[in-house]
Amino acid sequence: MRLLLSVTFLLLACGPTSRPNDGGVDAGVDGGSDAGSMACLEPYRTCQQPFTFRALDEQSVTLRGNFAPDGWTVGVPMTKQGGQWVASVSVPWGGAVQYKFLVNNAIWVTDPANPALLDGNSVVTNLTCTTWTCAADAPDPAAFDWRDAVIYFVFVDRFVDGDPTTNCHVPNVDPAGQYQGGDWKGVTSRITDGTFTRLGVNTLWVTVPVTNASVGGSGGDGHLYSGYHGYWPSDLESVESCFGSKQDLVDLVSAAHQHGLKVLFDFAMVHVHQSAAVFAQHPDWFWPLSYNGGTCVCDDQGVCPWATTAQRCWFADYLPHWNYTVAAARDYSVDRALKLLVDANADGFRLDAIKHVDDSWLTQLRSRLTTEVLPTRAPRPRLYLVGETFEFGNRDFIKSFLGDERLDGQFDFPLRLALLQSVVMRQTPMSSLKSFVDGNDDFYGPRAVMSTWVGNHDLPRVIHFAEDTPMWSDPYTNGKDRSWLNQPQLPNYRRPFERLANAFAFLFTSRGAPLIYYGDEIGLPGAGDPDNRRMMQWTGLTADQQWLEDRISKLAAIRAATRRCGEACAPRFRSATTPGPTR
Ligand SMILES: [Ca+2]
Predict the structure, then answer these.
(1) N or C: which end of the chain has fewer CB within 10 A?
(2) pLDDT for res 143
(3) What is the pTM of this model?
């Protein structure tokens, strides 16, 4: 949710429980065989890693290392068996351990049998085993593996008008901020005609489905907007009639599933619109607008700076901010999210501006998904939660929202910065990207599925960063200077499309779930919000646009050929002979 606030959003922002397998402990580095263990995906496996130290006349030996929070200070006592001291510790599949032996509680020694050292310690890396335990909440291996996801952000209002009878119009709103007629029937029509399958997408992120305010609101830029974007929820108990009926939404998800597509609903849980009945009925469920003798609208100049009041300041004076430290408020919101997902049979959420709500909201949502929704589904999948934290410097902060009890992933803003700077904008050498990625691939942990991306609805269209002279020099500019005047045109030469293709080649061949912002596959032009949300172009593609779309489709096919499968091994992706509609 950065429709109104692009500038001010800046910088705000396993030791698994075990499910026993056959009980054997026959661990060893590089075992690699699946024989003998319960089936679960690699990130949910835990190995018992043995350590040995040749015994001479020691009184005691303790294994110390980073295998546990107290591993360096307490460690694990080793026992003498035959001619050696032995101990084993639990290590996540694919993990690494730095360690030393503490002899007689006095002498630290590295492992004489292991020449590998890191930072002065012995180290073993990339640990696997032939027998493992599976985490208690491990999804069935037959279920869709989210590491295979290729996500497409469908901006419903700007995609396809499949039913003009429900189109909405808010008086006095500027055209670019007005409802444009896109709807769920329109999205469904593109599901069933194979558009997504041909592109190689297998997951749709659909804009917020709940009812939004039907009045206009100031965008803080002198223009009046409608709630076409979905980020002004006014009734969490009904769906947005401008996009169709509830049945239309159910039909969308059903059609998606029939075509091998997962569906993530965008969910805006930070605030409601002031017209929401729940705000009138329960004002105590929201942070008060007045604060410290002033008005608490998020603002770095006002009484409520982003950095210190992010979880209570109002994004605008008409958007009351939920107070989820109130249990009843939290219960209500989580209830609504769950019901929305269950009723439509969706597969997860994209959670807007997650850092602006109390952590208890997220842990409660995850807990209820696990206990109430998972048992109803087969094969038992992981319900994917991906968060938005607009933060491109502090990776520790982004990571702090991840975990079995929280998010599966977040949008990788720092990676986008590195990718744009090197590949798209050519400001830094490729070695900078390599250096960044070397430290980023494993940063978020083995179970994280970050969503990797180059474009979204809050930033100028990425094609303009790829022009010979990038239209903006700052990869995270809001591009508002050309939103309303001097709006950019589609580049009329191939090179920007080639640069974009290179960026997507990186995304599709790297860890993470690549995200395509609708239209980026054809280099759709546009400056900052709302010009970056033009109606999708379905006809009259230039040769350059068609070339880029074909290239992305090929990349998706290459990625699909190496996917991990599960349930999803049904043929989802285009083969060379599959005919499809002509656009
Ligand atoms: Ca419509």
Answers:
(1) C
(2) 85
(3) 0.86
